[in-house]
Amino acid sequence: MPSIVQHIQQPLAEVPAQWQPLVRRLWQCWVASAAGLLWNWLCVLALWASLLARGKDLLFAGGLLLLGPPAAWWGWYLPLCHASHRDSAAAPHGPRLTLLCLLAHAVGCAFVALGPSGWGVAGVLAALSLLRKQEVTLGLTLLLGAMGWLCLAGVMASLWQKVKLSGMLIPLPARPAVGGPRTPSKAGGVYAPV
Questions:
Q1: 157: which residues sit within 8 A by CB, 6+ positions away?
Q2: Which of 24, 78, 147, 180 has its CA 20 to 30 A from that of 51?
Q3: Domain that includes residue 37, residue range
Q4: Are the C-beta atoms of 140 and 100 separated by less than 8 Å?
């Protein structure tokens, strides 16, 4: 993925100063969610190896790991990076869909933190089940990951609100070319360039 490599090398080079903290936080959330999906897969792998999870859980966790980061990258991170460049168009697939993807990602983080059985996620419910079975080490490991996912869900929800209220996704009006159309001015019908 060449665009990811470019963002690793110079993550904020072209972003205006007013948007840099927000874009940096979005980048950190994207990296944290990708690392969290790797953690989730490793936890489900440990559950599967100790015969406490089914093969379908491992398959679902692998699917989340392979599809989650690219979907987040193209669903909300990259459109928000493009929207932060004020000389470019706003989000390529529309501001509402970008906000919906960001909110869906926050809800997905909360779902992974909850961790219902059969979905390939190792969250609170799976950790409590293990703690009841006296699997303390594995249960505490899952609980640690679930708390990380819960914190990430809260941060993502607050970022969703900041992006929504910041005006980052509002496209700037296009400027007419020099010698472009003229409109009547308020000063008595004299035509002035826009």
A1: 103, 106
A2: 147
A3: 23-170
A4: no
Task: Let me know if residue 18 belongs to a domain.
Answer: no
In a domain? residue 186: no
3-state helix, strand, coil in the chain (%, to 5): 65, 5, 30
- Residues 6+ away with beta carbon under 8 Å from 172: 86
Report the SS3 class of residue 65.
Answer: helix
Question: CA-CA distance, 66 to 87, in Å (whole number)?
Answer: 33
Q: In a structure prediction context, what are the per-residue pLDDT tens digits for the chain, which is 194 residues long?
A: 445 555 554 556 677 777 788 888 888 888 899 998 899 899 888 888 877 777 888 888 888 899 888 888 888 888 887 777 655 555 556 677 888 888 888 888 888 888 887 787 888 888 888 888 888 888 888 888 888 888 988 888 888 888 877 777 665 555 545 554 545 445 544 444 44
- In the chain, the number of structural domains is 1
Q: Is 139 part of a structural domain of the chain?
A: yes
- Does an H or E element contain 183, and which? strand 182-184
164 lies in a domain?
A: yes
- What does the buried/exposed string (b/e) look like for 107-123 if buried means 16 or more CB atoms within 10 Å of the residue's CB? ebbbebbbbeeebbbbb
